[in-house]
Every structure is written in C-alpha cells, then in structure tokens.
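P.,

For your records, the input lines for the assembly:
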Amino acid sequence: MSKIHVSTIINGEPAEFLCEPGQTLLDALRDELRLTGSKEGCGSGDCGACSVTVDGRLVCSCLMLAAEAEGHEILTIEGVANGDELHPIQRQFLEHAALQCGFCTPGLIVAVKALLDSNPNPTETEARYWLAGNLCRCTGYDKVIRAVMDAAAEMRAQ
Amino acid sequence: MAYDGNKVDLKVVGTRPVRPDGVDKVTGRATFGSDFYLPGMLVGKIKRSPHAHAKILAIDTHKAMRLPGVKAVVTAEDFPNIPSEEAFMGEGPMNFRDLSRNCMARGKVLYEGHAVAAVAAITSEIAEQALELIEITYEVLPHVIDVEAAMADGAPLLHDDIFTAGVEPKPAKPSNVAKRIFFGLGDVAAGFKDAEVVVEGRYTTQPVHQAYIEPHACLVSVAADGQAQVWASSQGQFMVRAYCAKLLGADMAGIRVIPAEIGGGFGGKTLVYIEPVAFALSKQSGRPVKIIMTREEVFRASGPTSGGVIEVKLGAKKDGTITAAQVVLKFQAGAFPGSPVQPGAMTALAMYDLKNTSVTGYDVVSNRPKVAAYRAPGAPISTFGVESAMDELARKLNMDPIALRMKNAAKNGTKSTYGATFANIGYVETLEAAKASAHYKIPLGKNQGRGVASGFWFNIGGESSATVHVNEDGTAVVATGSPDIGGSRASMAMMAAEVLGIPYEKVRAIVTDTSSIGFTHLTGGSRVTFATGMATIQATEKVVEQLKQRAALTWDIPADAVEWKDGMAIPAGSNAGAFPPLSIADIALKSARTGGPIVAEAAVNAQGAGPGFGTHICDVEVDPETGHVTVLRYTAVQDVGRAIHPSYVEGQIQGGAAQGIGWALNEEYIYDKNGKMDNAGFLDYRVPVASDLPMIDAILVEVPNPRHPFGVKGVGEVPIVPPMAAVANAIRSAIGKRMPDLPMSPPKIRAALDAG
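Structure tokens returned:
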C-alpha cells in the first residue's frame, strides 16, 4: 500500500510527512518527524503520555491516525516553551519537583496547558478530574496538582 | 574532611534546587529507552505463548525467514543453553538459567506471554506478519495459577527439578514449592501460653504490577567483531551488561551499555527481558535492532510482584505487651523460583521488640509471569497481614493503635526476628510524629474511618563508583553509574557542591555508561543517595585535597597549611603566611602548571545503610450503596535520616503511598480458567489516577545515619509498606468489618456489608 502525504502545522510551523494508512499520529510524530517528546505508555488511550492538542483540543495521539492530521494544527510538548523561555507550567513543574522519572511529564504538561487555556481558574477537583487521563506512577500527583494550581495563578496574574 | 551527620550549617544539602535533567524532561528533550534511532535500524518483535503451560514440540521459522524484509529470526536455539547458576545482581535472588529461559522459552512455556521466538524486520508491519508466520506446535499441559493450589499434592508441576529447599530430609518428589524458610526468636508456644489476648487472621494479596509508564525498550547494535552497544532503559546498565554477556556468552569488555533516561522502574527494571533478544537479533542480522514492549506485553510478560497468603497469630498481655507472634507466608514466585518471601519474612515483625516469634515462608512457582522486584520486595505483603492483625489486637485491647505500636516498638538495641540488632533507628519518632500530627486529631463523619499502620525496610548500600572532574573554569562534573530514577542526579550535585563549597549550579551530575565509570550496582534497595552519594562525597573530598595541594604548590607552603573554605583555598592560620584566597576557578585555570587535570574517582562498597521506618495515617469514606472507598486524607511519616533534597524525598514518600493505595483498593492480576490474564491494559488494570487521590502529606523525621557523612538513609521503599494495612484499618473503622483480601474493591466491600 502506498504512503499518504500529510500537510499540517506542528508547533506553529508547516510540516509535511508521509505515513502508512494505519500509522498513528503518535508514531508519525516520533518515527517520521522525530518529535520524540510525546511518549507511548499504553497505545490504547489510557495513560495520556502521548497527549497533544489538535486545533486546541486535547487528544491522545496514539488514538488518532496520522492521516487525519491533514490540514490541522498540532501542538506537541516540543512547542510548549517559547524558544528558550519555559512556559509557566513547565517552570512550576520544575520548581515543585512535580516529576520523578519524567516519562509522563510531556503528556501531563500538554494536558495542563489545554486545561488552563480553557479554564484559567480551575478548582483542585477540576484539575484532578481533567488530569484523570494522564497516569503518573511516580509522584502520587500531589506535587503535580500543586504545580498546576500555582501555574494557573501565575498565568492569571500575567 | 570530617562531616558530622548532626551538623546543621549546611549550605546546599537540605535545599530544593531544580534538578539538572529537569528542563529536558519538561520540554520533551530527554531521551528514554525508545527514543534512540540508528541508521539501518530494524524493528524487533517477540512471539509469545498463548498457553499458560505447554510443551514446545516444534518451532518452524522457515516461512517467516523467507518473508521479504525479515532479517533475523531467533529461538532458544540461538542462545547458549546455560546451566543453573545463582546470580545476585538485583533486588532478589536470580538464576542465570532461569533468566535465560524467561527471556526465551526452551522446551516448555510456563505462562501465557512467555517469549518463544523473535524476529527483526525492516518495518513494524513486516515484523508483525513474520510473527504470524512462525509455526509452533504445542502440547498443552494442565496449569496452576493459585498459590495454595500450586502447593497441593497432585498439582501440575512446572519444573521436574525443584525439590523443596530448606526441608530435612530432602524431599524425594519434586514440587512447586521451591523453598521453605524460617526466622524466629525464643519460644512461641510459651509466649502464647503467657498471652491474655490472642488474635488470628488469614490475609491474602494479589499480584500487582510495578506499572511504570514507560514500557521496556532497548536498541542493540552488535558489530561483526562482536562488539556491542546497548541503549536501554533499566535500573542498572551494569546489570544489563552482565546479563547480556552471560546469556549470550560474550565478554563484558565488548559490551557497552549506555543508560537511557528511565521512565519508572520501582524494581521492575532490575532484570532483562528484551536486551538479550535484541542482542541475538542484531548479531544474526548484522544491523541495529530496537525492541519496545507494548503495554500488554509489559503486563503479561514482565513484573509483577507476588500475590501471597499471610497467616498471622499474635498474643499479648492486657497492657498491650506482645508475648508471641507467629506468621506463615505463602508467596507466588511466578514461573521460576525467586519470590520475595525471604525479605517478606525478614520484615514481617521487624518493627517490634519481640521475644517469641516464628515466621515461616514458602516460595511457590505457578503458571504466571516470573515475579520481579517491586519496591521493598515482599515487605508490603507480609506487613499487610501483620499490621491488619495489630489493628485487631488494638481493638481487642481497647487501645489506641499508635499506643499499641509504641508499647512494642523496636528501639536502638532491639534484636529483630531476622537477626539484626538495631542502632540509630527512628521508628518511635515516626509514631510520635504521627500522634502529634494535625491529621490524627481531625474528627470523622458518618461512614468514615481512620487507620494507622507502620512499615519497615532494610535499605542497602553496596558497590558504587563516582568520578569528579574540575573543569578549566572552576565548575565541576560528577559522573556516576547509578541510573537516576527520581532525582538522584540533583542529590549527587548537591553533595558535591556542599563538599566543594561552591553553588549547586556550578556542579553538573551525569549518569554514564559501563565503559566510562567503574562498576556500580543497580538503582534499587533505596541505595543510590546513600551508597553512590558516599562515592560522590569521597571523590569530591579527594578533589578538595588536590585543590589544597595545588594552592600549597602555588604559595610554596606545606599542603597541611592550606584550608578549604567556601570554594576557596586559604592559608590555615597566620603561621602559614599571608596569601590572598585562591578560588576553585583560580586553581583550575592554572592546573596545567600545578600537575595537570584535577580529577578524582572513588569506588566504594558502602556499608551501614540505616534501616527505614514509616507510619501512615489514612482516612476513608465508604459509600454504603456502591462499596466505593474514597481516600479523604493521607499522612505518611518517615524517618529519612537526612533529606538531601527534601522535595524529592517527599516525592518518594507520596508516590510510594499512592502505589500502596492502588494495591489496597484496585490493582490485581485477573486470570480466566485457561490461565490467561484478563486485564492486561491500563483500562482494566486500574492504577490510581489524579481524581482518586487526595494530597498526601509527607512528614519527614530526621534521625541521622552516622554511617553516612550527611546522615542519609534510603527513602524510596519504606513508603509502600504501610499503605495496604493503613487503608484496610481505615475501612475496618468505617464499616466495622475486617477486609482480609486485597484489593478491597467495591464488590468485596458490598459483599462484606451485605453479610451484615
């Protein structure tokens, strides 16, 4: 079967790639574009390590076909910082030590960004339910949630 | 340079700087096991057994080999058939033959998911097709999953050469019971005779997976001359090298293992599954081979820890003094011997100062994946039983559960059931802190309950190497051989900065490969900050000595007339002469004139890891309609010796508690009648998610360990020991029923409520 040509915008820049018809967006990001910040933890949409946004909407890139990205705008973890300047969410994760192994971190940060872009002032409960699709086995979520709440406050103040 | 663990004027130790690998991890740049690519790289995949127990009659790989794009196919025939040989490289016993046969089945498959063959192909799709083309003829055998069924006479036998060890005389017939062990003190029968109150219980736990979010992944490139490079996510690059060398019959010098960032391990990455397979495929194909496990493979073929049966009997006087304790443990080892029943037995009663004890343990094979270490291996299982029984004893005596524990707590000088005599321990301090906590005083509402439980873990030291380089600009690099699983690079840099007297930001810590640093035992046993930290401190002290010598040479005074203070050489007193201070940067810049590069290494076999104790308080609310348990509040108190980076110490405690809560309430391996796992995915094997948990308060108690320059004790494992009993005791308090079987899932709670 021949490959499919896909044109997208990834992290604000035009990107083209060829993919197999059955290839997931996650595999295309990683294997074709070498954007390896998105991780596969399960391949079934249960862990959230592959979280990206498509036109601003949070998705598990392991559950979306790469060919479906045609014409859409994708944000991955590689596009969250503004050049050398970390996003407040990234900085708060570091300051709160909200990561241990760091494997779930890219997906968590993308998911937190999607939350705060749509709800700048979430309650702790709202943050916990929003992030229920992002598994972290190391932290017990305590420091993650603290980082989210402080990032939200910082972003509101800006 | 003498450090005193009680010294308080530390400048870096005890602060909370950003970890050195932090920015890479929040920006997606960090490279984990699956993030490496090489030119000409092939995709490796593994064919796995669909049966729980079967003889392999034939394997035909011809069709797979002929598929265009397939470059290698391997089976057990491509690995040396190595004899039984004990190896102690991880957090538990290991046998090279068993490990080889776990990586690739030979003659028999012992569990569903057992590797039988593997392929390497130019694409993932072709590799999948090739797996389908491998024809395997099986003779299906009866299987056994449950531990007590596996122990019974007439149970299907997994191995015909297991004769229960530790039983005299040696049994004449083989069985699934690999080993019987015993620990004890005094006279248990007399102790129970003295008892005024006795409680007895039978508790069970299910196997649970470490459930690190990163599936196992590696990339192996074997050249035509046999030299190999391995990129792998593991808890020990030296462990990977040793196992690859042994399982492939290769020399260690020809294998260079480069540690990837590790996406969680918790003990589950202290052994190999795919690295020897990728090695064999690369050798056969002459090309680099990458293998990444799927989540389903991770569940079916790696990890978990044992499920177990824990029988506990405690006798006490009316004042709470325990007169006798008897524990029987039956642990599932999975397909090969090596459950953590020994540490389970050793830790079972370690928290208490007891005169009459008896702990018997059985290591039992069954048709499940071979168990791997999981955080304080064995201790959470035995402790769930003992700490549940302690709660029952407190109820029977009408005593506060903390008071009962205080009455019997191990103290300095206590001889434990497993043999050690304790020194510098902080168990009582954790009980006092728990009792004094705000949490313990919060009133409870309807359907709510509070539980308390404690836990113990040995912590280990062992072999570590570290190198410290002073760079030309006066900054420093610390290289160690310990994979950083939770922030240990930050601790290494902090300890080196403290000794050098320079800011943390001027020291970089890295984890390096097997050809660039001396041997280092794997990251496990809560050993890294203690043992690798000690190597780092010693190497840094040697560097400081060199710096002082260089200053002495510059000033033309004796080296012992130079002092090192705040990152600078200064004359020691007025007799030494009047010289302006020389900073580390001044000395480094001119090092060529004073003897060349300033580098030191230290290799240690660290002894004196202080044992760790923790006490947890859990509040729950039980929904009487659904049986669902909500954890309302959770406080974890732990003696940590001294926290180098308190945030990462708290993180270990919070993460361990969360894993324990999952073990208590949700997690388990579920099998169908054919011995196949029913829930091999994160949807059905449910680990705690953010909305399942409250904030977890970590209270650090610091009783310094005098055997470490900064007082460090291991911290990573203790926190998973108390939670199962803490949750069970809270549920007992909320619903008036003892839940002896994990997980305490809604159907079981409903059934207990319905039983009236």
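Two observations worth noting. Chain A touches chain B through 58 residues (CB under 8 Å). Residues 142-157 of chain A form the longest helix (16 residues).

Regards
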